[in-house]
Amino acid sequence: MASPFDIDEIYPDDGDHELRLPRRQAGNSPQGVAVTLLADYTLRTRVSLPSAAIVALLGETGVTTAGARTAISRLARRGVLEGSRLGRRSSYRLSRGAAASLSAGAHWILTSTTSTVRWDGCWTVVAFSLPQELSGQRRALRAQLRWLGYAPLYDGLWISPRELNAPARARLDQLTLGAVTVFRGRQAPLGSAIHRAPIEAWDIDAISRSYDAFLRRWTPLLPGVVSGDVDGAAAVRARTEVMDTFRRFPVLDPQLPLELLPEGWLRRPAQELFAAVYDGLAAPAERHVRAVVARFADGTQPGIRAHTTADMLAGVRVEASLAERGHGGAAG
Q1: N or C: which end of the chain has fewer CB within 10 A?
Q2: Has residue 216 got a pLDDT over 90?
Q3: Residues in domain Transcriptional repressor PaaX-like N-terminal (predicted)?
Q4: Of 108 and 131, the one with more pLDDT
Q5: Radius of gyration of the chain (CA)
Q6: pLDDT tens across 268-277, in order?
C-alpha cells in the first residue's frame, strides 16, 4: 500500500475547476507553506498582504526569496491567490474559491478526529471501472476518494466505514460520469481464515506509528507553549508545522471504528495535543505576523486574525465586506 502521506491532494480538487490547490509532497513545499500561512491568519477576512511580507514570512520557514516569489506566482496562476497592484508594489489574498475549499478542509480535519458517532457495523463500498485512456480521471477519482476517507481494499474497490453523504456524492458525480457504483452493507463472514477484512485496507501499524511520532514531536514543546516562551517567528513556524502534519491524519485515519482498532488508539490524544499547540500559539503568532506585515504595509492590518480550532469546527464564513472593500490591501 502506498503511503497516505504521498497522496495527491489533502484538500479537494474539483477536476476541471480552475482552482487547483497545491499538491501535497513529502516534506513542506513552498506553495503548501504559503497556503497554510495565509489560511492560518487571513482565512476569515481574505485580507490582502504585501507580497514582500509573504516572502518575508516564508523566509522565516526556510523558503528562499526566489522560491517564495515563484510559489506566490504559481498560486496566483492556479487561482488560489488574487493579486492587486499599487504602482510597482503588489499584494495578494486568498481567492474566494480557495477560502471556501480551505474552510471546508479545515472543518473536515477537526470533525474527522473529534467525531463520537458510533459505527453501525456497515461499510460503504465504491466500485469503479475506468478505461485506460481516462487515466487522469482515474487519478482524480482516487485522490477524491482518499480525501473523502476511503481506502482501496482491492483495485477499483474502495471502502469507508462512514455513509456517503451529500457533498461526497456530488463530488463523485462530477468526476465519474456514471462509471461508479456505491453500496452500503455489512461484511459477510467467511469460514476461511485467509479472507481479507475491510479494515485491512488501512495499514493500522503505520497509522499507529504516525500518531506516536506526532506525540513525541510535539509533547516536549507544550510546556513552552503554556508558559509563553514560544514567541515570534518560532510561534509561526510551529503553528505552520503542526497544522501541516496534523491535517494528514484524517486521510490516514478517517474515523476508523474504534471497535476494530487496537486498545489505546491515539487519535484523541493527538487531536488534543494539536489543539493545545495550535490554539496556544495563536496569540503570539498573530502578533508576529502583524509585525512582519507592518514593515511592508501602510498602516495596520485589521484583517489579520489567527485561525483557531474553534473556527475550524464552526466553519469559517468569509467576511465579504472587509475583503471586498480591499481593507489591508496596501502593497509592499
Answers
A1: N
A2: yes
A3: 31-95
A4: 108
A5: 21
A6: 999 999 999 9
What gap in Å lies between CA 112 and CA 125, rounded to an integer?
19
Residues 131-150 have a mean pLDDT of 77
Q: Does domain 123-185 have CATH number 3.30.70?
A: yes
| Cell of residue 258, nine digits | 474504534
Which CATH class, in words, describes the domain spanning 4-102+287-325?
mainly alpha
Residue 44 gets the label, from left (phi > 0), alpha (psi -120 to 50) or beta, of: alpha
Nearest to 280 by CA among 323, 330, 219, 328: 219
Q: Residue 40 corresponds to which cell in the numbers above?
A: 492560518
310: cell is: 474553534
Stated length of the chain:
332
State percent of the chain over pLDDT 90: 50
Query: To 5 degrees, how large is the angle CA 274–CA 276–CA 282?
Result: 100
- Facing residues of 85 across strands? 90
Q: What is the mean pLDDT of residues 257-263?
A: 92
CA dihedral 280, 284, 287, 289 (to 10 degrees): -80
Helix 232-246 to helix 30-42 angle (10° resolution) is: 110
* Dihedral sign for Cα atoms in the order 70, 324, 79, 252: positive
Q: What is the DSSP string of 105-116?
A: HHHHHHHHHH--
User: Smallest Cα–Cα separation from 230: which of 274, 272, 284?
Assistant: 284
Scanning the chain, the segments in alpha helix (DSSP H) are 30-42, 51-59, 65-78, 96-114, 135-147, 166-176, 204-218, 222-227, 232-246, 249-252, 267-280, 282-294, 309-314, 320-325
Question: Residue 38 to residues 58, 187, 193, 235, 303: CA-CA distances in angstroms?
Answer: 11, 44, 51, 15, 11
- What's the pLDDT score for residue 331? 34
**The pTM is what?**
0.82
* Beta-bridge mates of residue 330: none
Residue 276 and residue 225 in contact, taking contact as beta carbons nearer than 8 Å: yes
pLDDT, residue 189, reads 77
Tell me the backbone φ, ψ of residue 37, rounded to 5 degrees.
-60, -50
Helix residue ranges, H only, 178-203: none
